[in-house]
Amino acid sequence: MKLTQASARRGTLRAAVLAALATAVLDPFSWGRLEGVATALAAVVAIVLVAAWGVIALGANEMPEEEFRQLAARSEELAAMPSAERESSEFEDHVRAAIDGLPEDLREVLAEVPIVISNRGHEFRAYGHYIGDTVARDHFHDQIVIYQDTLERDFGHDPGLLRDQVARTVRHEVAHHLGWDEAGVRGLGL
Question: How many domains does the chain have?
Fold first, then answer.
């Protein structure tokens, strides 16, 4: 499961407080000077925040690149098969319908974004996953993964509910591609 910004901030704050206390204990000459402790605390907080930002910015909680490449390659291989060799599954039809249900402008934005169906959602505790740096930055290849196993596990008992949740998950991941963070996407009702 991805680190939420709130849990990342709590961990960062906890590390900053511990570092400040360690600095104050290890430097007894600063005890008498409150200004020195405050400066040391501010420096430690700044270092910890920059380090935390770096870890999150580098994608420490993302799916490994090699694993995603394998998923994308398999998806492209299956998509290239003639329809006589392979029938699409009901789940694939739900994903296709969700994409077709998007406004034309959004479908055009997704024209170059592979959407992969995977059965590894239980590992990430997710229904979907956006990997990339949004349409605005576009420095990395963007990819969307829809996790069939977790969606079918939680919503497969009702075909209508499953179809609706697949559509919601696709919209959720598309919103990430358009630049919304997790809080913003949830604010949209996705």
Answer: 2
The answer on 84 and 168 residing in a single domain is yes
Q: Residue 18: its pLDDT value, please?
A: 67
The separation between the first and the last C-alpha atoms of the chain, rounded to the nearest angstrom, is: 17
Share of the chain residues as helix, strand and coil, in percent rounded to the nearest 5: 65, 5, 25
Would the CA dihedral through 165, 167, 170, 172 be positive or negative? negative
What is the value of pTM for the model shown?
A: 0.54
DSSP secondary structure of 20-49: HHHHHHH-GGGTT-HHHHHHHHHHHHHHHH
* Inter-residue contact 140 to 98 (CB < 8 Å): no
Condensed to tens digits (0 to 9), the pLDDT of residues 70-113 reads 877 777 777 777 665 667 788 999 999 999 998 888 888 888 88
* Nearest residue to 98 via CA among 164, 161, 147, 186: 164
For 56-72, the pLDDT digits (tens) are: 666 555 667 788 788 77
132 in the same domain as 104: yes
Same domain, 95 and 147: yes
What is the domain range of residue 103? 65-187
Length of the chain: 190
Tokens of 178: 């358009």
